[in-house]
Amino acid sequence: MQPLEKNIGIVNVVFGDQVQVVQPVNLYDCTIGNYCFIGPFTEIQSGVVIGDNCRIQSHTFICTGVTIGKECFIGHGVVFVNDDFKIGKPAGNASLWKKITIGNNVSIGSNATVLPVNICDNAVIGAGAVVTKDILIAGTYAGNPAVLIRTLH
Amino acid sequence: MQPLEKNIGIVNVVFGDQVQVVQPVNLYDCTIGNYCFIGPFTEIQSGVVIGDNCRIQSHTFICTGVTIGKECFIGHGVVFVNDDFKIGKPAGNASLWKKITIGNNVSIGSNATVLPVNICDNAVIGAGAVVTKDILIAGTYAGNPAVLIRTLH
Amino acid sequence: MQPLEKNIGIVNVVFGDQVQVVQPVNLYDCTIGNYCFIGPFTEIQSGVVIGDNCRIQSHTFICTGVTIGKECFIGHGVVFVNDDFKIGKPAGNASLWKKITIGNNVSIGSNATVLPVNICDNAVIGAGAVVTKDILIAGTYAGNPAVLIRTLH
Predict the structure, then answer these.
(1) What is the ipTM of this complex?
(2) Which domain holds residue A100?
(3) Closest to B62 (Cα-Cα) out of C73, C20, A40, C58
(4) Could you read off the pLDDT of B53-107 as tens digits, one per residue?
(5) Does residue A70 lie in a domain region?
(6) Which chain B residues are within 8 Å of A111, Cβ to Cβ?
(7) CATH number of the domain that C73 lies in?
(8) A128 Cβ under 8 Å from any chain C Cβ
(9) Is A153 among the residues known to form the active site?
(10) The total number of structural domains that make up chain C
(11) CB distance A15–C2 less than 8 Å?
(12) pTM for this predicted structure
């Protein structure tokens, strides 16, 4: 049999001023603020909203349900997760997907994984961290699961 | 010097009915069952067999030696590993690569890493987990290395 | 608004003899030694130097500041990090990025994350490991953060 092949691209995206995008990317039905940079091999899904002056680095996947504030840095290979497999498998129904809110001036290190949580302004997530709980206090978090390793000076 | 450049694509793949593939992908010499979905930026190597009704999400790499059952969800950025560097470096000889068997109705969270193991039916692997040992009892496993965090209700 | 779109490619790369590259890749202003293999969906940034006979597998990101010796294996989805967010966010100035030096005959497992460190000859980094400190003694390191789990026989 032949598969049904689709191609990635930029479809129905609202871009602010002076956004840079490095192809190939898969961006659809999302909103990207002024002066953002979107690296190659990235996917940003429907409904995602990204504030001004953010960098979304290569190989990153941002799922439906994610809102990112201003001045954020999302490293390479970062993956957001909107389904916690609570029923022992994928929810199967988009209405069950969770929200993920990232504040302003948040830096998320490369290869980090962010489950359905809220991350407050000025938080720093270390490279390779797995964020499983809300982050309510600015500081640096690392590990799997991520824990606070340094408060903000 | 000029490098020898090859291009990715779909080469010698046996597809079941109504498979969807989002390009760009690198699929070769593998078998993909009915009603599967294969996301963009994925690579599936020679000899891999994937059962019916599976979703293989973006940025995932499935190496030679992997067999996946039916109704499985493989998240974004999941990587399978068939070589445990037992000799202190890559085996260097494909005959030394290990097998990886994934049962039916298995869900593997995004950015997880799966070493040469067997994973039983109905297992759930958390996002960002590193699976280093066989999983013989259905339940949810997370962490690096992955451990059982919740048995199946 | 329309974004400024750029395309990835191979720009100003010094290749040794008989290098193989699988497109799509994003390689620029770097040096890649003889007989190397570069997999698809990889990015290698300015100033990176890779020695002879290395394999750089798919989905890997190698940042400015990285030097890799000879006979190294860099797995799938490996990400190097040159900025430790010491000021609580990205350094913002390339002069503050750190160096990362990988010796000869080093094997780095898939989905590993390598922060600004030096890794000695013959080291083995397990799949999914997060390397946060210099590795000075040959052996196998795994976990988040990576620790020595086996010395070299």
Answers:
(1) 0.96
(2) 10-87+96-151
(3) C58
(4) 999 999 999 999 999 999 999 999 999 999 999 999 999 888 999 999 999 999 9
(5) yes
(6) 111
(7) 2.160.10.10
(8) yes
(9) no
(10) 1
(11) yes
(12) 0.97
